[in-house]
Write a structure and sequence with these properties.
about 400 residues, alpha+beta, Glycosyltransferase, 3-stranded antiparallel β-sheet, 16 strands, about 45% helix, globular, disordered N terminus
Length: about 400
């Protein structure tokens, strides 16, 4: 078994060991214990994250963004609580989301994406537009919580959220098929153009939706998402945003060049954690040429047209890329990512001034490497027998 994470040194040894087992001819004994944590194994990173970012009422706070809350933050917390087998936190986060982002009724409306302090100093919804990635992760967490915790109310609520996503956030793009737009409004442009975000297409959760009864529409959405991911990676890396135009495909706007940064990093994370048995994983991995430079952190931004890299990425990028590097069998890159992560641990979180987004990339990426969770071929969550 992995030893619990009680220090940065133990964290580094635990996460780096699987990479070293692949780098070198290791004995069976040396690698035999790398099957992942048991159900009772503590998850100090989650405990530290809850203490730092989740209030007692279930609100997830982004301190680096003026103390705001987002539907994304709430949805991610639901997923992590499920992985941690933490139903009390799950319910608290869900209740706050329903009461404050969905006007008390998540079954009839999608959550607002942005809640915070307005110009008058009052707290409440700042922007009532939706964010479909958050909505899909929320629906996924509810579906899997219903299944794993035998809670039919969660299943029923998930189905209502999915109905609203289908009705309010999907469209049919000529030549592509049905697709989930980034939100309810603002992404269908003039001249038969649509603005899309590749990081909003996690194929594993789309597959989970497709496996449901009457999930055929979601299978079509997944096929469209895969097609758009392949088209978006034409330069060997994934962009934050793309514009798709009828009969022209992906086009580059003069005022918004193709670039990959804070959004795109999640697309690598979702691809890396996708089941190895998924036939769509290998072609996407092969299409991408994103790699690493020994001794250098990943860049903060890549201009996909010129290939020019700029800036030094925050530490969360390394955590997000680790599963992708593992999937590419790029062990030297995985080794570099884990070394960088190890140098930045402080009291169970990344960096002395922890940032919400970094911590979530790390929770997703490192928990997957530790085998706290995996995704099955059908998109269901595998949690090492932590649920009866």
């Amino acid at each position: 078994m992995f030893a619990p994470l009680y220090s940065a040194k133990l964290q580094f040894k635990r996460l780096l060991a699987p990479a070293l087992c692949l780098l070198f001819i290791a004995s069976t004994t040396a690698c035999a214990g790398l099957s992942g944590p048991s159900c009772n194994s503590p998850w100090p990173q989650w405990k530290a994250y809850k203490s730092r970012f989740i209030q007692d009422d279930g609100r997830v706070v982004e301190y680096s963004q003026g103390g705001r809350s987002t539907s994304e933050a709430q949805a991610y917390a639901l997923f992590h609580a499920l992985v941690a087998n933490d139903p009390k936190t799950f319910q608290r986060v869900l209740s706050w989301t329903i009461d404050n982002l969905a006007d008390g009724d998540l079954g009839s409306q999608l959550p607002a994406w942005h809640w915070g302090r307005n110009k008058q100093g009052n707290w409440g919804i700042i922007d009532n537009n939706s964010a479909s990635d958050a909505d899909m992760w929320l629906a996924y967490a509810l579906l899997e919580a219903g299944r794993l915790w035998s809670n039919p109310d969660y299943n029923a609520l998930a189905e209502k959220v999915l109905i609203n996503i289908e009705a309010l956030e999907t469209t049919r793009i000529p030549g592509i098929g049905p697709i989930v737009l980034p939100g309810r409004r603002g992404f269908t442009l003039d001249n038969d153009r649509w603005k899309l975000n590749p990081s909003y297409f996690p194929l594993q959760i789309l597959q989970r939706f497709a496996e449901r009864e009457n999930g055929h529409y979601w299978q079509q959405i997944r096929d469209s998402a895969y097609q758009l991911l392949m088209l978006s990676s034409q330069h060997g890396a994934l962009p934050d945003w793309v514009i798709y135009q009828k009969d022209k495909g992906i086009i580059e706007e003069t005022d918004e060049p193709l670039a990959g940064s804070y959004d795109a990093i999640r697309a690598y994370l979702w691809l890396g954690t996708l089941s190895d048995r998924d036939p769509k994983k290998h072609p996407l991995i092969q299409k991408l040429s994103f790699s690493c430079e020994i001794g250098a952190p990943p860049p903060e931004k890549i201009n996909l047209r010129s290939g020019i890299k700029s800036g030094i990425s925050p530490i969360g990028f390394s955590a997000a890329l680790a599963p992708y590097f593992k999937a590419r069998h790029a062990q030297h890159c995985l080794h570099e990512a884990l070394r960088r992560i190890d140098k930045n641990w402080h009291k169970g979180l990344l960096a002395r001034k922890p940032v919400y987004y970094d911590q979530n990339l790390a929770l997703f990426g490192l928990a997957w490497l530790e085998k706290r969770y995996q995704f099955a071929l059908d998109g269901k969550l595998l949690l090492k027998h932590c649920h009866s």
